[in-house]
């Protein structure tokens, strides 16, 4: 890992603004990323665990992780909206 844990957390957390994002790193360099629905609740829009931060050695790898997380977040919103619409149909 070429960045400090604090720098890496700051890059990832700030990439989800204005949403609230919390990134934690274990001593084994396993990362957990939580993205919350809004600032007022603790409802999670995304939870990804066991990310191997040892492989985040370049800007490209960090960018790819953030892109993957955003894709997962977007898919979560699509699924949530689909459930809401289907639930109203019945």
Spatially, the strands of the biggest sheet line up as 1-2-3
Structural class: alpha+beta
Order of helices and strands: HEEEH
How does the major sheet shape up? 3 strands, antiparallel
Rg computed from alpha carbons, rounded to a whole number of angstroms: 15 Å
Rounded mean pLDDT score:
85
Total separate domains: 1
Query: How much beta, percentage-wise?
Result: 15-25%
What is the CA–CA distance across the termini?
Answer: 51 Å
Low-confidence runs of at least 5 consecutive residues: none
Globally, the shape reads globular
What's the β-strand tally? Answer: 3
Q: List the total number of helices.
A: 2
Helix content: 40-55%
Protein name: DUF1652 domain-containing protein
Pfam families: DUF1652
InterPro entries: DUF1652
Could you explain the architecture of this structure?
By secondary structure, the protein is α+β, with helices and mostly antiparallel strands. It has one domain (5-89). It is 46% helix and 23% strand. It has two helices and three strands, in the order H-E-E-E-H. It has a three-stranded antiparallel beta sheet with strand order 1-2-3, covered by helices on one side. Strand 1 (21-25) and strand 2 form a beta hairpin. It is globular and about 35 Å long. The termini are far apart. The model has no long low-confidence stretch (mean pLDDT 85). This is DUF1652 domain-containing protein. InterPro entries: DUF1652.
């Amino acid at each position: 890992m070429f960045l400090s844990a604090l720098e890496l957390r700051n890059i990832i957390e700030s990439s989800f603004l204005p949403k609230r994002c919390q990134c934690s790193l274990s001593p084994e360099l396993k990362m957990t990323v939580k993205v919350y629905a809004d600032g007022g609740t603790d409802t999670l829009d995304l939870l990804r665990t066991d990310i191997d931060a040892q492989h985040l050695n370049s800007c490209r790898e960090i960018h790819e992780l953030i892109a993957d997380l955003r894709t997962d977040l977007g898919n979560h919103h699509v699924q949530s909206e689909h459930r809401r619409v289907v639930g109203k149909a019945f």
